[in-house]
Amino acid sequence: MGILVAVEGLDGAGKRTIVGRLEAAAIDRGASVRTLAFPRYGESITADLASEALHGRHGDLRDSVYAMALLFALDRAAARRQLHDALAGNDLVICDRYTASNAAYSAARLGAGAASEVVDWVADLEFRRFQLPVPDHQLLLGVPPEVAMGRASGRAETEADRPVDTYERDADLQHAVYRVYGELVQAQWMSTWSWADGDAAVGAVLAQLG
């Protein structure tokens, strides 16, 4: 089985860029690599429903922390076979967002922390009930909220298919999510973690390959 690495961080933290760098660096080392991105917008109906809710549709759906978390979890659950097949056929599988995103955003929306009931609920739901593979390592990109939000806004101005959603516009929420992410790192939630950016982030993941 290959190594599963989840790249986490705020919207605008540069996850897609780092995933691309990780993939290229691992291939240069002779590793076989597969990448996946969550939520799977445009591929998964539950992901699309969540996105539509975050852009003002489906009534008060987005007001429910647990309902939104369930939609994102169901998106990953539908990709379970894809994840297991990728791990069986590759040395390294990199996910752009994974279960920790659900834990961090859900806890932050409730004003809670990494040791809260909702974080335990997310872990039970995704890893026990949906039987998703547990990451071998998780990387938090160390990009602070002010920088990440600025990048997300700038991206929305140049990429019509990536408008800023309700979560991305909420500065208080973004700061709270970053705090919970930090607590997940300190607790080494579900796996080992690295908290880095740029070259240091790439090096931290490549170290998992031995």
UniProtKB/TrEMBL annotation:
CDD domains: TMPK (cd01672). Belongs to the thymidylate kinase family. InterPro entries: P-loop_NTPase, Thymidylate_kin-like_dom, Thymidylate_kin_CS. One of its GO terms (biological process) is dTDP biosynthetic process. The keyword Membrane does not apply. Keywords: ATP-binding, Kinase, Nucleotide biosynthesis, Nucleotide-binding, Transferase. One of its GO terms (cellular component) is cytosol. It comes from Gordonia sihwensis NBRC 108236. GO terms for molecular function: ATP binding; dTMP kinase activity. Its EC number is 2.7.4.9. The keyword ATP-binding applies. Residues 7-190 form the Thymidylate kinase-like domain. This is Thymidylate kinase. Pfam families: Thymidylate_kin.
